[in-house]
Amino acid sequence: MSENAATPSPASTVPLRPAEEAAGEAPEEPAGEEAGEAAEELAGEAVEGPAGEEAAEVGCGVTAGSPATAIAEVRVALFSALMQERSSVAELVTSLRAELNRYSPGGKLPSSRALVERFRVSPVTVSRAIAQLAAEGLVTTRPGSGAFRADPRAALPAPGDTSWQEVSLSGDGGPEVVPRTVDASGVLVTLTAPPPGVIEFNGGYLHASLQPERALSAALARAGRRPGAWSRPPTDGLPELRSWFAREIGPAVSAADILITAGAQGALATALRALAPPGAPVLVESPTYPGMLAAARATGLRPVPVPMDADGVRPELLADAFRATGARVFVTQPLFHNPTGATLVPARRPEILAIARAAGAFVVEDDFARRLVHDDSGPLPAPLAADDPDGTVVHVCSLTKVTSPSLRVGALAARGPVLERLRAIQVVDSFFVPRPLQEAALELVGSPSWGRHLAAVATELRHRRTALATALGSELPELALPHLPAGGGSLWLRLPGGGAGDGPDEPALVSAALRASVAIAPGRPFFCAEPPAGHVRLSFAGVSGAAEIAEGVRRLRTAFDGLLGG
């Protein structure tokens, strides 16, 4: 699935509008940009979301000539237009970049009208291509005069001697029991884009075809025209957005309990710094999210593992860990746990909170996957924070996972004195979340497209999960799948023999898979202590669909056989 388009088509496909022909150089003026944004916004409200494209592809089951058919045809046309526009901008940038050597520094490039006629593209395409070259520092623009080749960049100075930093950074004479370490390797596995042609089973975000790109563009355009959109927001976040997050968490939470954050990763780091001093132990599920482990260690905390099973963290072992360590913080993902996909069963929920209260400890609830539910999951349990009158739970959630990696808008929810400490740390670290992003998030979740997007993602994630599980069962039965999740975007697989002796070990399989042009996430970074067996995590949310899933599993089979000498 792909998001539908709202960008005007290139001139080679769709004739220029009379206004564009008459304006000539007008696309370089703000008025032309505003008109384009207004058109995108208008189209965006009509055909938002992956569900719209699916309806267009299947014809919606309506007869020719009906209004629904007309809407479906518009969806297809707009989607085609956006793909063509993106391709045209990239091709024009490549052509102009190759020709820049023909101009001396300060030399004037052809006018926008001349480029439109020569390359048979729209004025909007020309305007965007010139803007990209200007952002790269290759051209400069002068209002009313045109675009000119920029002066060559000065040569970079030779690097100095930075070896002294090794002594300075390692000479930590502070009183911390555990030295601060910054290891982002486990996070970078899911953030680093693989080389071209590599199937990305290690992704941590939705594939571009599942992201509501058009809805986001329309929301951002509307947000930018809101009164005061570029002024300083309240440090706690916009009141309307705080109220929205509070309603999503549950009726016991109010807007006064909410802080708007720049996504969930920063919120987790803020919570850990607020709740535990450097050197203190912090209890974590085993396995768990590598980004949280990295944040804890960077803060100087000592992660202590608490084993879990298919029903979530084991309460008796959690109680033992609190007694043994004196920890005052436990971090959990009770819904669609990353990486196992497990959900904390109802019987354990009150028990976990009671154990934490008895220890005088906080529970940090990372509710990252609530909006990544699959459409066959059934009713979801409420967040732990929804039934927590005593302020034991510090709740973290975000819009990022279900929208785009760049919509870094999330929330912290807490009650009692800890909220002031959380607020103080966030203000010191970042002042506030940029207001345009908050306004855009409000526009997005308040639009008719939001519910359609969530429903389409729920359906598509279930399809992809089933496709990956089926392909693995057929082609790679050696990889054990102990749990088939009803939410999230990945599968957690155990290597045969625990990856020790009678099967490929984990690093070898990850390396062999990459040589076979498929990227998978190793299991080791998900453990804060020695793992009980070798594991890998395969993402089905970050690939384009069932065909790519089948090809990726085929390549993984080849890599597996190569390690076994097959």
Can you walk me through this structure?
The two termini are 36 Å apart. Helices cover 44% and strands 11% of the residues. The model is unreliable at 1-64 (pLDDT under 50). Helix 14 links the parallel strand 8 (329-332) and strand 9. It is built from 19 helices and 15 strands. The protein has 566 residues and is of the alpha/beta class. The protein has helices at residues 18-23, 30-46, 49-58, 67-99, 112-119, 123-135, 164-170, 185-191, 213-224, 239-249, 263-275, 290-298, 315-325, 349-358, 418-430, 435-445, 449-475, 506-515, 546-564, and strands at 139-142, 146-149, 199-200, 258-261, 281-286, 302-309, 312-313, 329-332, 362-366, 393-398, 410-413, 490-494, 518-519, 521-522, 535-539.
Mean pLDDT level:
82
- For the largest beta sheet, what order do the strands appear in spatially? 4-11-10-9-8-5-6-7
Largest sheet: 8 strands, mixed
Q: Regions with pLDDT < 50 over 5+ consecutive residues? A: 1-64
Overall geometric form:
globular
Strand content: 5-15%
Query: What is the C-alpha radius of gyration, as a whole number of Å?
Result: 26 Å
Number of strands: 15
Helical percent range?
40-55%
Alpha-carbon distance between the two ends: 36 Å
Question: Which structural class is indicated by helix and strand composition?
Answer: alpha/beta
Number of helices: 19
